[in-house]
From TrEMBL:
Natural source organism: Cyprinus carpio carpio
The protein's name in its UniProt record: Reverse transcriptase domain-containing protein
InterPro entries: AlkB_hom8_N (IPR015095), RT_dom (IPR000477)
Domain of life of the organism encoding this protein: Eukaryota
Residue stretches making up the Reverse transcriptase domain: 1-170
Lineage, uppermost ranks: Eukaryota, Metazoa, Chordata, Craniata, Vertebrata
Gene Ontology molecular function: 2-oxoglutarate-dependent dioxygenase activity; methyltransferase activity
Length: 318
């Protein structure tokens, strides 16, 4: 996996290039003209106290703080797609991730994908930040081989053991201790504020709302991706946070296991109802039409991951 970082990506959007791209998507020509007018000839000044700089006219980028900023960037980068079937290109805010599946130690398609991405970035005036670009290699073979680092503009990319993407710490061995430790640290910090609110005499309903918004949201972020493969010790440590919060709030709070079960089922149902989802085919019904087809695996790592677990939960309800 290659985690690519762009320097000031939102500020390098070229309006003419963006409009040309959205026209290919079938947008109304009046809307295209409005976007072009919105992004060009923008006057900007810097004010500090009573001092104001001279105005500067900008013809690139999207205005900072504008609600359309992420949407315009997504439209600008929508044509950045994988060119090989063994690769996947994912775009999230100002970063891009290239995921390549290597078979028989053949990384030619993966390296070509990186080269294509580099060329696309140059053509679209996006500057690659090589210092913040990292590579993560996941290899479970018994006899792992030396991996030659990826190079961008003749500069080797740093290989890391873990990377935060996005909000989840991914390790090269797919062990989630690093992520759960980070979640625990952040959750304990929020528990302090929860206890302070109780000392100030806040009602149980306000305490529960604060817990749901600031603590539970951290504990359950992307829980369907990592909870199934986390260790029993990690799950117990996270559940202790819930028990502490339950004591502070003074009422029952849902366990993390219950939340994980509900989110797995809800996510599986969304995938089943969306035929365009890339993983729609993994959740197929048996000829009886009552149960989903099970996914067989020889090791516990794939068996405890989202799709097999979601299938087991869905079938248990039938």
């Amino acid at each position: 996996m290659l985690f690519v970082d762009y320097s000031s990506a939102f500020n390098i959007i070229v309006p003419a290039t963006l409009v040309a791209k959205v026209k290919t998507l079938g947008l109304n020509r009046y809307l295209c003209s409005w976007i072009l007018d919105f992004l060009t000839a923008r006057s900007q000044v810097v004010r500090m106290g009573n001092n104001t700089s001279s105005p500067l006219t900008l013809n690139t980028g999207a205005p900072q703080g504008c609600v359309l900023r992420p949407l315009l960037y997504s439209l600008y980068t929508h044509d950045c797609t994988a060119t090989h079937s063994s690769n996947v290109t994912m775009i999230f805010t100002n970063g891009t991730t290239v995921i390549g599946l290597l078979t028989d130690n053949d990384d030619m398609a993966y390296r070509e994908e990186v080269s294509t991405l580099t060329k696309w970035s140059q053509e679209n005036h996006l500057s690659l930040n090589i210092d913040k670009t990292k590579e993560l290699v996941v290899d479970f073979r018994r006899q792992s081989r030396e991996h030659t680092p990826i190079t961008i503009d003749k500069t080797p990319v740093e290989r890391v053991n873990s990377f935060k993407f996005p909000g989840v710490h991914i390790n090269e061995d797919l062990i989630w201790s690093t992520h759960t430790d980070a979640v625990l640290k952040k959750a304990h910090q929020r528990l302090f504020f929860l206890s302070r609110l109780r000392k100030f005499g806040m009602s149980p309903s306000i305490l529960r709302t604060f817990y749901t918004c600031t603590v539970e949201s951290i504990l359950t972020g992307c829980i369907t991706a990592w909870s199934g493969n986390s260790t029993a010790g990690n799950r117990k440590a996270l559940q202790r946070v819930v028990r502490t919060a339950r004591h502070i709030v003074g009422g029952e709070l849902p366990s993390l296991q219950d939340i994980y079960t509900r989110q797995c089922i809800r996510k599986a149902r969304r995938i089943i109802s969306d035929s365009s989802h890339p993983s729609h085919r993994l959740l197929s019904l048996l000829p009886s039409g009552r149960c989903l087809r099970s996914i067989r695996s020889r090791t516990s790592r794939p068996r405890d991951s989202f799709f097999p677990e979601a299938i087991r939960l869905m079938n248990s309800q039938n």
